[in-house]
Amino acid sequence: MSGIAKIKFMRPANISDIREVALPWSQGLLSARLWQVGERTVAGVPELGLHCFGKCETEAVFRLFSTLLKYYRQLKANEGQLKAKGKDHLELLSRWIEGIEQKMKASEEIAPVIPLMSRKRN
Q1: pTM above the 0.85 mark?
Q2: What would the pLDDT profile of 25-39 be if each residue is shown by its tens digit?
Q3: Of 7, 99, 105, 111, whose CB is crowded by the most CB atoms within 10 A?
Q4: Is the pLDDT of residue 66 over 50?
Q5: Structural domains present in the chain
C-alpha cells in the first residue's frame, strides 16, 4: 500500500439516519441536520458547511448555535473583505439573527410598557 492514508469521513452508515429540521428563526432558509456517529451526535448546517459534535443531541445543538453566532460576528467584522461565498453566508446569517431578535422583542399588545414611578423621599 502506498504512503497515503485513507480518511474515513464521519457519515452515517444509512442515509435514513439523518434527521433534517428547520433551523429556528431562519424562515426556512437554513436547515440543520442531526445524526449519530458512534457515541457522538453531529449537528450541522449544510448551507454553511458547519458541523459540531456533542456527547448528546442537546450539547451538539448548543455548540452549533454558539458556532453560528461566532461565525456571524466574524463575517460581520470582516464584511469589507468577504468574497461572494462569505457575503452569501453573511446574508443568510443576518436574516437568521433578525429572526432571533424579532422573537426576543415583546410586542406592545402582550407586554405594554409600564412607566416606573420614583418614590420621593422627604
Answers
A1: no
A2: 777 788 899 999 888
A3: 99
A4: yes
A5: 15-103 (3.30.160)
